[in-house]
Amino acid sequence: MKLTSDKSVFEKYAHEYDLMTNAGQREKFHTGEVAALIEKFKPESVLDAGCATGLTSMLFAKAGCTTVGLDRSQKMLTEARKKYGDSSYPLEFRYGQFEKLPHVLQNKFDLVVCLANSISGVHTLSGLWKSLRSFSTVLRPGGNLVLQLLNYSAIKESDLVPIKTTVNDGLMYIRFSERHRRRFFVYTVRLDMNKDLSAFEVFRHDFDNFTEKEIYSNLRTAGFGQLHKYGDLFLKNRFARTSRDLVVTAKKPLI
Ligand SMILES: C[S@@+](CC[C@H](N)C(=O)[O-])C[C@H]1O[C@@H](n2cnc3c(N)ncnc32)[C@H](O)[C@@H]1O
User: Fold this and answer.
1) What sign results for the dihedral spanned by CA atoms 48, 54, 55, 58?
2) Is 118 in the pocket of ligand 1 (CB under 6 A)?
3) Could you tell which of 30, 34, 71 is best to mutate to test the pocket of ligand 1, judged by most ligand atoms within 8 Å of the CB?
4) Nearest CA to ligand 1 atom 7
5) What pLDDT sits at residue 162?
6) 174 in the same domain as 75
7) Range of 217's domain?
8) Coil, helix or strand for 106?
9) Are residues 17 and 51 in the same domain?
10) Residue 51 sits in a domain of what CATH number?
């Protein structure tokens, strides 16, 4: 067995990300979530920050929103372009980092979404603040931001919490997480059942976790107003201490 601790697990497994996350099965459910966001914010243009292999970006574009999927992983972008690059949707994928989004994107979007805990990829509080500031600069006045994070406060210290187990084409991925104060670890076990079963690999992906209070105060100092929190992406359930997700919406003021 090999244990690798690596901050770039997404880069390493980009080519298997859809297998690992059951993207095919997730699509139907996620289509409903994206439809709910479109219904609520009625965006014409969307930035999908942390697009990975592009499912969310594609769903916004398919619904008619001019969409940019952005990621710092070139390998994820390659996978996204392979899947959707030739579509007739108003969709493009580009490289970028949340902390310093490309200048050409300033004031371009009605909606920025940063889903599936992607914001935790910035690792530090200063990275969080820079990213929220940067999301604000690419939004048009009156535009909205949606952040979807894990609700870390509902995860007990040192508990091992299962995330998901998937089996596709003989590849099994078992993922679980563990919280140690500010550190949050995601363990990924990869087992190729077509090969020698003893040759499984375990990866540990670690980052800082952010509290609800830190998200709120950084959103305010980054200039956002009208902050609301929900327990799901459909924006139906109010956030509760036991919610699995913390979904925060925020508006860039008109002036
Ligand atoms: C959990 S995956 C996101 C998944 C995607 N939004 C979805 O719903 O399937 C997180 C993605 O965010 C990207 N990411 C993390 N931190 C980033 C940053 N600071 N700048 C740009 N991309 C980042 C990673 O490369 C990865 O592809």
Assistant:
1) positive
2) yes
3) 71
4) 116
5) 87
6) no
7) 10-151+210-251
8) coil
9) yes
10) 3.40.50.150
Domain count, the chain: 2
* Site to substitute for ligand 1 among 118, 125, 134, 247, most atoms within 8 A of C-beta: 118
Say yes or no: 40 and 162 in one domain. no
Query: Ligand 1 within 6 A of 121 CB?
Result: yes
- 134: Cβ–Cβ under 8 A, 6 or more apart, which residues? 98, 99, 100, 101
Tokens of 231: 């327990």
Q: Ligand 1 within 6 A of 148 CB?
A: no
Same structural domain, 183 and 246: no
Q: Which residues of the chain have pLDDT under 70?
A: 1-9
Amino acid symbol at 158? S
CA of 50 to the centre of ligand 1 (A): 3
In-domain check, residue 1:
no
What is the phi/psi pair of residue 147, to 5°? -110, 130
Which residue is listed with tokens 């497994």? Answer: 13
Q: Does the Cβ of 187 fall within 6 Å of ligand 1?
A: no
121 and 247 belong to one structural domain: yes
147 and 160 in a common domain:
no
User: For strand 66-71 and strand 45-49, is the pairing parallel, antiparallel, or unpaired?
Assistant: parallel
Asked if residue 116 and residue 172 are part of one domain, the reply reads no
DSSP string, 2-26: EEEE-TTHHHHTGGGHHHHTTHHHH
What is the whole-number distance in angstroms between the Cα of residue 55 and the centre of ligand 1?
12
